[in-house]
Specification:
This protein is α+β, with helices and mostly antiparallel strands. About 25% of the residues lie in helices and about 40% in strands.
Length: about 190
Amino acid sequence: MTSGARPAEDVEVKLPCVDLDAVRRTLKERGGQPVTDLHTEVNDLYDDAERRLSARGAALRLRLAAGRALLTYKGPARFVSGVKAREERQTHVEDAEEARAILAGLGFAPTFRYEKRREEWLFEGCAVALDETPIGRFVEVEGEPTAIRRAVSALNLDFSEAIPYSYARLYLDRRSKDPSLPPDMVFARTS
């Protein structure tokens, strides 16, 4: 029996950005509305022992941010009007440790951790995230394809520089060129 509900979709572009401060200024000047202050996110990707989720381009993630936990499933990516689209299902989790135990009980184990410092805005009908990561700074713009193009242009970013890959894929590519990098994409810890 199916519910007939249409799958939720994550439609976005990710662009490298040298100067997040310039994008932030543009957001303020052009009427962008801040949604969240700068905060740290810790994201753990999960898969089974055979890595069946990642083999088909899907992802299972537990995100911790600002004292909250969010469990997310993302389906395989496809491209629509030059932007990445994929099914996305998510729910808030009351207890992250219990969620980890449930995932383990279902046969899922953490396979990769990535961290970022993120600030979120609403702009031109899109969600805009300013991300600082251990491998660089990025702007993610999520919304309808035409709204995404309009927002990217209004932010003085170059749509042709859009990156179709996840942070996990970007990091694994970087690590293949520099095996001295740690296995997870995390910020350096200071003592």
